[in-house]
Amino acid sequence: MPHKFQTIIEPFKIKAVEPIHFTTREHRAQALAEAGYNLFLLHADDVLIDLLTDSGTGAMSSEQWAGMMRGDESYAGARSFYAFEAAVQSITGYSHVIPTHQGRAAERILFGVLCHPGDVVPNNNHFDTTRANVEYRGAEARDLVAEVGRHPAELHPFKGNIDLEALERTIVEVGVDKIPLAMLTVTNNAGGGQPVSMANIRAVSELCRRHGLLFILDACRFAENAWFIKEREEGYADKAPLEIAREIFSYADGCTMSAKKDGLANIGGFLALNDPPYDNERYRDLPQRCRNQLILTEGFPTYGGLAGYDLEAIAVGLREVLREDYLRYRIRSTAYLGEKLLAAGVPIVQPPGGHAIYIDARAMLPHIPPHQYPGQALAAAMYLEAGIRPVEIGQVVFGRPTHDGSPETPSHLDLVRLTIPRRVYTQSHIDYVAEALAYIAGRREQIGGLRITWQAPVLRHFTARFEPAKG
Ligand code: F0G
Q: 419, 79 in Cβ contact below 8 A?
């Protein structure tokens, strides 16, 4: 028997490198003040390790770059479209593949065709652009994640599962006529990057079929979710990620997808649909109606706002993302950071998610009340001390200003997301992040709260400005 080595290594070697930028603490203090303590407003060149998002920030492979050279830029019927369509269909099995410039464009098109004022769209947790696109249509985005998914410290293999009873209750109470579709987000980004089990996906599918409802996956991180199923759900250990992914997609009628995540591309997305299995006015000609919308704002149906070379990069990326060596490394390297943070006494959402580690800032900085934004304060401290840029997902994102000067109502959680770009940082970068957080945790009581000096009426987290709170 050959020896089985334990170390899981990066399954690639590096062909092109890009320098990262070392700065002094003094420089960062000034940059932070100029950015109003909002890390979205920093220049990326002032950031050493950028953990703002895993969206479009990945490194492409030599095969993807080679594919880009093969890109066919024909306006209609480009060869690259057919390569893209074949790649999407080989995984999803859906008959209609509609390219879009990114995930939210697919959402806007689908909800634009299906949703009306007063409608309700259930999901485990809507991502913020998904929610915004549902609400823009006057509909309600209702989050029905299972109870265990709401408790950061609780361990459960599938904390992204939807509460099936709550879903059924919603269908009965709201009525099928007011529910144009049901969704599941895999993995559940807004809920800590947690996976959804195959059993849960299958059960949602059966429920939707029984009620004649369209079931759509938000599939941004489908490959990571497939790997969690392989590792954690009985009966899947010996199945290939592609086989598991195909089963996931087989239970739904279509998906929206941001190829900036598990498409391993820097831009792109798609809406993929089967002809709805229900013969009624609401779903009649759905794929065609979506294509009509696509032409209006995104482009002709064989490019949908993307260059031919983008379509090629996605086609190759969708195959690479399902490689076992890649997924094993991807999920393990995220867990590795999580374990180091736990060992340093940093409270995180448990177990580690697929694309990110979420720090429970409210638990880590109990001396900062929610209305002084502990998540934002921790994110700013990470930048100041170590040049790391995470993203706050808490009071700043979910809280709402008050008009009488009273403190804001606390949001459910105050998290800071350390989002790992795909194939970009090595283990020593991650060791550095863990060391920085251990240092910050050791002097946590010195971190003070913040107050908002300016904010926009919607999606305030992108542009709000802060200053240190008094006291
Ligand atoms: N759905 C989920 C679950 C997402 O995480 C995102 C994007 C989208 C839809 C929208 O896709 O950006 O291509 O339009 N999430 C990024 C993030 C931005 O940082 O989590 P998009």
A: no
